[in-house]
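Records of this kind hold a single protein each, on a pair of labelled lines. With that in mind, the following record should read easily:
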Amino acid sequence: MKEKLEDLYQSLYRHVGHHKQLLELVRLEGEILVGADVLKIQDVLNSKTVLLNSIALEEKRRQGISELLKGHFKKPSEQITLQEVIHELDGLDPENATRFRALLNTLTILVERITEQNRKNGDLIEVALKHVSKMRENIIGQENTSSTYTAKGKQRSGGAGRNLVSKEI
């Protein structure tokens, strides 16, 4: 069992490394989104795809190790959580329990930070899409005509010259 636990620890340790890289990538992605560099955005997306595939592969390895541990825990491998492993080790092997607890805390913090950064990046993309949509409307002349005149029929100020290209001859 000790060897299986060490394999599990190493797998989770690799998870931590992958998640640290992912956090750096999503932070970089946010910076690149602000700069609107399409080529760099594509590079980051490609790097994220490779990294997410590595995370998925490592997760399959971890599930395989959990499958080997299910006899000891007397549970299906899907129900063997890191919290369960820590609880089991607390009385038997406090040193390993501490190691696994540190990994759990690190992974939890990394996942929270990655999630928050992804949310911020999503907000940046939403704002950019709104700006692009507004520019598109201005370029092709699809402005909201109801905002051109007041309820009394007078032209609002700032309405003139809203189109990028004038239709006058």
The chain has a mean pLDDT of 80. The chain is about 75% helix and 0% strand.
